Amino acid sequence: MRVNHAVIKVRELGRSCAFYERVLGLELIARAGARMAFLRAPQSTNHHDLGLLAIGRDAPAAPEGTPGLFHLAWEVERIEELPAVRERLRAEGALTGASDHGATKSIYGVDPDGNELEVMWLAPHDAWGDFDNAAPTMPLDLEAEVARWAKAPVTAPPRLREPLCRPSRARILVRITHGSGELARIPTSRRLQQSRETRALRGLVPGRAAECDSSCA
Questions:
Q1: What is the spatial distance between Cα 83 and Cα 143, in angstroms, rounded to a whole number?
Q2: What's the angle, vertex CA 214, arms to CA 207 and CA 73, rounded to 5?
Q3: Angle of helix 142-149 versus helix 82-91 axis, rounded to 10
Q4: Are 57 and 102 in contact (CB under 8 A)?
Q5: What's the rounded Cα separation, in Å, for the pair 172 and 41?
Q6: What span, in angstroms and rounded, lies between the C-alpha atoms of 15 and 113?
Q7: Is the torsion defined by CA of 16, 17, 18, 19 positive or negative?
Q8: Would you state the pLDDT for residue 66?
């Protein structure tokens, strides 16, 4: 079993769709009315990798210190992709930091609603060494790491090397890094209207209408 996709709450669908299209290159592939949008990562064979649920422009932020998702991490195949992601986040005023976690090299940012995101590259497993069972947080010298690992072979992490029921050649993989739960696979398009996400719309945030602008149409 593995994580298939994530769904996050946002205030305005159009604004959030545009952000993830610009910064991560995601493609808007479907909508469920004016309250949900589904996006797919570049070269992904998944139905969708991210869902956005609009809860209204005036929705309050979650109180600091309450339980919930800390951040959503996106994995790129090559470390050479990270500098461009960093600059796109910087251009949005959304860059919040960078860290070297030993086995992973990470850039951090926030979306327009303050949802934290990580874009990370995973080093080849045979280079993890002592980091195989450790995840330190150290300063990241991205340029030095790019020079060191440029053109490194693309290898799947050990947990994805065993055959799966359905092969995946996704260039960016969704990984949840907070909590131990995992999400189920998305149903096929014919069953989409019966999916958990769509059924959840019927009772979520009663009486609050969300709006979607032309960039999400």
A1: 8
A2: 80
A3: 150
A4: no
A5: 6
A6: 10
A7: positive
A8: 93
Please, what are the averages of pLDDT over each run of 10 residues along the chain (217 residues)?
96 98 97 96 95 96 92 96 98 98 98 98 95 97 96 60 38 43 39 42 39 42
Question: What is the token pair recorded at 30?
Answer: 């479907």
- The single-letter code of the amino acid at 7 is V
Contacts of 138 (CB under 8 A, 6+ apart): 99, 100, 101, 102
DSSP-derived secondary structure for 34-86: TTEEEEE-TT--SS-SEEEEE--TTPPPPPTT-SS---EEEEES-GGGHHHHH
Cβ proximity of 172 and 76 under 8 Å: yes
Q: How many CB atoms lie within 10 A of CB 107?
A: 27
Question: Which single residue is written with the structure tokens 């086995």?
Answer: 103
Q: Give the pLDDT score at 153.
A: 76
Q: How many residues does the chain have?
A: 217
Beta-ladder partners of 53: 9, 36
Domains of the chain: 6-57+69-212 (3.10.180.10)
Other beta carbons within 10 angstroms of residue 201's beta carbon come to: 13
pLDDT at 58: 95
Tokens 């990798």 sit on residue: 49
CA-closest candidate to residue 8, choices 40, 32, 37 = 37
Q: Which amino acid is at 22?
A: R
- The whole-angstrom separation of Cα 31 and Cα 52 is 9
Give the tokens for residue 162.
């065993």
Sign of CA dihedral 60, 178, 19, 106: positive
**Residue 188, SS3 per DSSP:** coil
β-pair partners for 95: 109
